[in-house]
Design a protein that fits this description.
Distance between the termini: 22 Å
Number of strands: 3
Helix content: 10-25%
Strand content: 15-25%
Number of helices: 2
Strand order of the largest sheet: 2-1-3
Order of helices and strands: EEHHE
Low-confidence stretches: none
Largest sheet: 3 strands, antiparallel
Structural class: alpha+beta
Length: 96
């Protein structure tokens, strides 16, 4: 058995990552920033290596579930997200 922090040849390493389900966005309302073009229902993996467009898609998924004041630009979306007491989205953890 290997000690803490040491991985031996027979040890298994499981890495957990946060995942978010990509929602089906309203076809007429594009987010006010670049987003990664992933299909609705697919899993968006969140980790430290995410590109700006993936982070943009995550924020758009969060904003999709809240009311945003018109005109719905970047500032209004951020203000609406900050005003929420609780943010809920479909997702979970994925191991590999």
């Amino acid at each position: 058995m290997s000690g803490a922090g040491n991985v031996g040849l027979n040890d298994v390493v499981i890495t957990m990552q946060a995942v978010v389900e990509v929602p089906m966005f309203d076809s007429g309302a594009a987010p006010p920033w670049p987003v990664e073009p992933l299909a609705p229902g697919s899993w968006l993996v969140l980790n430290a290596d995410c590109a700006d467009e993936r982070v943009g898609l995550f924020v758009a998924a969060l904003a999709d579930r809240i009311d945003v004041a018109p005109p719905g630009g970047r500032n209004e979306v951020v203000d609406a997200l900050l005003a929420e007491e609780l943010l809920i989205f479909a997702g979970g953890g994925a191991g590999g």
